[in-house]
Design brief:
Distance between the termini: 49 Å
CATH superfamily of the largest domain: Alkaline Phosphatase, subunit A
Oligomer: single chain
Strand content: 15-25%
Largest sheet: 9 strands, mixed
Number of strands: 16
Order of helices and strands: EHEEHHHEEHEHHHEEEHEEEHHEEEEHHH
Length: 450
C-alpha cells in the first residue's frame, strides 16, 4: 500500500467547504473529504511550522523533541529520534520528500531529511506558481517508481502562507468588497508601523479593504486546491488510487483578528491550532469524527495502518487514530497540550469543550516577553467555552473559576513534568522567542524598503 502525506501550510480548515465555509474555495479537497474520514477536531500541539511538522514526523510533543520555534543555531532533534520516512524506509517503502524545511533553515533543520531516499528541497517563493511546480515534481517521482515497491510520498506546499499572492485568476475570484468583519483602521490601530510594513509585501489591489486580503488568502487556497486535484487525478489515472492511503492535513491555521492578530499565525487560539486533517484509506468507509486528535498522532496512526515498526528506546506521546479509519469505536483524546514560542510565547490545554491559554510573559532570566506587536501582555490565563463560543470571542475565566483553576492546575502539572523530563530546561523560555519584536521590525522594514 502506497502512502501520500500532503501537507498544506497555514490552512484554516474553516476556509474549506468540507469544514463549512460558504465560499467555493476547495472543490477538489471537498471531493477528497467525501472519500475520507474527516477529523473535525484535529489540533496542532506546537506552532508554527517547524514545531508542527517535527511533531507530525516524530510522534512526539514539541517539549519532547525540543523544537518549539523556528530553529536557532543549537536546536536539533536527537539522532535517536526516528521519523515517519525512517519507519517507512525500514519497512521497505521507497521514501520521497518534497519539502523546504532543511533548505529554509540553511541546513539547520537536517532531521527533516532523515529517512528519505529522495529529498527534493526548494526555497519558498511566494506570489509564484511554485505549488504547481512542486506537484509536477511529485507526479514525476510517482511515475518513476517501480510499481512493485510501495512508496511513501511526503509533499509540503506553502500556499496559503503570507505574503498572500495567488496567480491570476485566483487573486480576484473571491473578493466581495466591504464584506469583512474588520476594517483596516482597526488593524492599524494595534500596531501601525508593524502592519503597514507587513502588508506592504502583499500585492493587494484594494489595500484599504480587509476583505481584499482575505480574498487573497482564499485565492491561494483555491490555487492550491487545483494542485491537490491534479495529484489525485494522476494517481487515479495511473491506477494507483485504490492502492494508496492519502492523508491531507495542514500544519496550523491563520489568525484573522483572533488575539488581536491579523494575517499571521501566533496565539494558541483555534484559528491557529485547529488544523485540517482527513485520511482516505482504500477499503474503508468515509465519514466524519468529532474525536479530539493531535499532530502527535499522525506517526503512530500511519504505522498502525501500514504495519510499520514503531521506534524503540523512548515513549511516543502520539496515540493512533487508526481505529477511526477502520470504522471501529474511537473516542479520541481527552486533551491536547499546545505550545508556542515564536515572537510571543504561551502554553495551553484544549479539551473537546474548553480551552485555557496561559501566556508566558518572561524568559528564564526575567526579560519580559511582549505581545507580537511589542506591547506588554497580561499574564492572566484565558478560558474559552468552545461548545458555546467556538470562535473564542469571549474570555470566561472569571465566570467559570472552578473550571479555570482545574484546567490551569492540570496544565501547570503537565508543563512541570515535561520540564523535569528535560532536566529542568524549558526550551520555551530558554530558546525563547526566535525573533524579538525589535529585530523582526528591523528586518521587516529593511525588506520593505527594497
Amino acid at each position: 500500500m502506497n502512502v501520500v502525506l500532503l501537507a498544506i501550510d497555514t490552512l484554516r480548515p474553516d476556509h474549506l467547504g468540507c469544514y463549512g465555509y460558504d465560499k467555493n474555495t476547495s472543490p477538489a479537497i471537498d471531493a477528497l473529504a467525501a472519500e475520507s474520514v474527516v477529523f473535525e477536531q484535529a489540533i496542532a500541539a506546537g506552532i508554527p511550522t517547524m514545531p508542527s511538522f517535527t511533531t507530525m514526523l516524530t510522534g512526539l510533543h514539541p517539549l519532547r523533541h525540543g523544537i518549539v520555534a523556528h530553529i536557532g543555531e543549537k536546536q536539533r532533534v536527537a539522532a535517536s529520534v526516528q521519523t515517519l520516512p525512517q519507519l517507512a524506509q525500514k519497512a521497505g517503502w521507497t521514501t520521497i520528500g518534497i519539502d523546504n524545511l532543511v533548505i529554509q533553515g540553511g541546513g539547520k533543520g537536517s532531521w527533516f531529511a532523515r529517512g528519505f531516499d529522495h529529498y527534493s528541497g526548494f526555497l519558498y517563493a511566494p506570489s509564484t506558481n511554485q505549488s504547481e511546480q512542486l506537484i509536477d515534481r511529485a507526479i514525476q517521482f510517482v511515475d518513476e517508481q517501480d510499481k512493485q515497491t510501495p512508496f511513501f510520498l511526503y509533499c509540503h506546499l506553502w500556499d496559503p502562507h503570507t505574503p498572500y499572492g495567488p496567480p491570476a485568476p485566483f487573486n480576484t475570484m473571491h473578493y466581495a468588497p466591504g464584506s469583512a468583519l474588520y476594517s483596516m483602521d482597526e488593524v492599524y490601530a494595534h500596531a501601525p508601523e508593524y502592519y503597514k510594513a507587513f502588508l506592504g509585501e502583499m500585492k493587494c489591489d484594494h489595500p484599504d479593504d480587509y476583505a481584499a486580503y482575505m480574498a487573497l488568502y482564499d485565492g491561494e487556497i483555491s490555487y492550491v486546491d487545483v494542485q491537490v486535484g491534479r495529484l489525485i487525478a494522476h494517481l487515479k489515472h495511473e491506477n494507483l488510487w485504490d492502492d494508496t492511503i492519502f492523508i491531507f492535513m495542514s500544519d496550523h491555521g491563520e489568525a484573522f483578528g483572533e488575539g488581536e492578530i491579523h494575517f499571521d499565525h501566533h496565539g494558541l487560539y483555534d484559528a491557529v491550532t485547529h488544523i485540517a486533517l482527513m485520511a482516505r484509506v482504500p477499503g474503508t468507509l468515509p465519514g466524519r469524527t468529532s474525536a479530539l486528535v493531535s499532530t502527535e498522532d499522525i506517526l503512530p496512526s500511519l504505522a498502525a495502518l501500514c504495519d510499520w515498526e514503531l521506534p524503540t528506546g523512548y515513549t511516543l506521546t502520539g496515540q493512533s487514530f487508526a481505529p477511526a479509519l477502520r470504522g471501529d469505536e474511537f473516542t479520541g483524546r481527552e486533551r491536547v497540550f499546545c505550545v508556542e514560542s515564536s515572537r510571543q510565547a504561551s502554553i495551553a490545554i484544549r479539551t473537546p469543550m474548553w480551552k485555557l491559554i496561559q501566556p508566558i510573559v518572561e524568559v528564564a532570566h526575567g526579560m519580559p516577553l511582549p505581545h507580537l506587536h511589542g506591547t506588554p501582555r497580561d499574564p492572566a490565563p484565558l478560558l474559552f467555552d468552545l461548545e458555546n463560543d467556538p470562535s473564542e470571542d469571549h474570555n470566561v475565566a472569571d465566570a467559570h473559576i472552578e473550571i479555570r483553576d482545574a484546567l490551569l492546575a492540570e496544565l501547570i502539572a503537565w508543563h512541570t513534568n515535561e520540564i523535569a523530563l528535560r532536566g529542568g530546561h524549558d526550551p520555551i523560555k530558554e530558546n525563547g522567542l526566535s525573533l524579538s519584536y525589535e529585530v523582526f521590525m528591523k528586518r521587516l522594514l529593511a525588506r520593505h524598503k527594497k
